[in-house]
Specification:
The chain has about 450 residues and is α/β, with parallel strands linked by helices. The protein is built from 14 helices and 13 strands. The strands form 3 sheets. It has a 5-stranded mixed sheet, sandwiched between helices.
């Protein structure tokens, strides 16, 4: 299906293809998404169901090439880590293929939180209080451990952002815990209302199955259950795809293809906050992340931070406070190498496998964190972590939300943030990842505080 958006411009305008699988029951919703995306990009958007017979993507690519397009952007519309962007496509050399990624974790978390908050309002009376509501992110089969871990991470992000009594996850398929089991457990622990949010895209059959399980679970546990709307129609989905579209073109040399000037201005100016006021910005952004991270149209390069050379002082030690020329440069440098894979907590026995090296790692982390923030470091906390004492809980919560999006696991105890530390951490790897993420987010926190004071 082709969503056309004809404008007066050069023939270098790309064609974007939305990739998915098993869309037969959601064809109308997929077409509407393509139309909305074409309106923002101002060029043609195609859809391709890879589950259809006879290898549809190569055929579609040939058709696009015959129409004179020279750039093809492939965007997976999926919530899975390993989406279909790597699907085989044989094209003529005149058609350049740009492979994008599925919606980013922060965009997905924002949409899930938005849906949870809306559904919670439908609960009766006093149960509308967020602290009395348990949110369940209900996902598909659960066969992939990596995907399961991502859902757990999303649950934590939504929990930290919205103040619900708890945010957990369940599986619609055979994997446990099931939706009914999670509802029963929440009811036993005193939940007065439960919101089930579908972690699904363009899966009407899965959504119907989820709704049946949620209703049955609520009836069995004698607790009120509300099922949230799907993410299919959330306006933030379009902006999540705009973000990935621009990233795909930027990674391949943005100047080679035409881009909607409004979107290009957002890409070029890191401190911009969305397209011009007249643009169709329908998304009602949840207060999930600091403003810098809430801007789903702001594109941050996926290039790793390791491109920045570590500067040294006269004694040969890393000068963490002088590594980046400026924080605008830091903001555009992209996420750390762990942006694609979460830098997780280190088990105590693993952290202490080499006590001498563990002490060295923590000492360097402490030095770096103190240099980039001026905050006190906590070294007497749990094994495998290093603490950073924030000014207050508001600051700790704000930083935690942002650091998690940088793909660094972080935990909070009051005003203290705990970041991973292990004996196998290297200076140019994990140590740099942690210090970089904190430097970047701390800068945005100080900017946020200045704006709050009217500075």
């Amino acid at each position: 299906m082709r969503a056309r958006e004809t404008k007066d411009r050069s023939r270098d305008a790309p064609t974007t293809v939305l990739l998915g699988r098993h869309w037969s029951g959601a064809g109308g919703a997929v077409r509407r998404l393509a139309t909305r995306l074409a309106r923002q990009l101002q060029h043609d958007v195609e859809t391709c169901d890879l589950a259809e017979p006879n290898d549809p993507l190569p055929r579609l690519a040939r058709t696009v090439g015959e129409r004179g397009a020279t750039h093809l952007v492939l965007l997976p519309v999926t919530l899975e880590d390993a989406g279909p962007a790597g699907a085989r496509v044989d094209v003529d050399r005149t058609l350049r293929v740009h492979r994008g990624r599925g919606p980013a974790t922060d965009d997905i978390a924002r949409m899930l939180g938005d849906r949870a908050r809306d559904a919670a309002r439908s609960l009766a009376g006093e149960r509308r209080q967020p602290a009395q509501v348990v949110v369940v992110l209900a996902t598909g089969g659960g066969a992939s451990p990596a995907s399961n871990a991502e859902v757990a991470r999303l649950a934590r992000l939504v929990y930290e952002a919205h103040g619900f009594g708890d945010v957990t996850y369940a599986f619609v398929g055979l994997t446990t815990p099931s939706v009914g089991e999670v509802i029963a457990r929440a009811a036993r622990l005193g939940a007065r209302g439960i919101v089930v949010v579908p972690h699904l895209l363009f899966d009407p059959r899965g959504h119907r199955r989820l709704a049946r399980q949620a209703r049955a679970g609520g009836a069995a546990a004698r607790v009120e259950v509300a099922v949230a709307r799907t993410l299919d129609t959330h306006p933030g989905l379009v902006w999540a795809l705009v973000r990935r579209h621009l990233e795909a073109l930027a990674d391949g040399g943005l100047g080679a293809a035409w881009v909607n000037p409004d979107l290009l201005r957002v890409l070029e100016h890191a401190h911009a906050h969305g397209p011009r006021p007249g643009a169709d910005r329908e998304a009602r952004m949840a207060q999930l992340l600091p403003p810098r991270y809430r801007d789903s149209s702001l594109v941050v390069s996926s290039a790793p931070m390791e491109a920045a050379t570590l500067r040294r002082d006269d004694d040969g030690r890393v000068a963490w406070d002088r590594t980046w020329q400026g924080f605008c440069e830091l903001a555009l440098a992209g996420g750390p190498p762990h942006r694609g894979t979460l830098l997780e907590a280190v088990a105590p026995d693993e952290a202490l496998a080499n006590p001498e090296r563990y002490a060295e790692v923590r000492a360097e982390l402490a030095r770096g964190l103190e240099m980039v923030t001026g905050l006190a470091v906590v070294l007497d906390g749990p094994v495998g972590w290093i603490g950073l004492r924030c000014v207050d809980e508001e600051m700790a919560i704000w930083l935690m939300r942002a650091i998690v999006v940088e793909n660094i696991m972080v935990r909070r105890e009051g005003a203290i943030l705990y970041l991973p530390a292990g004996c196998r951490f290297t200076l140019d790897g994990e140590i740099k990842n942690v210090v970089t993420a904190v430097a970047k987010t701390y800068h945005y926190w100080t900017e946020h505080q200045a704006k709050a004071r009217g500075g």
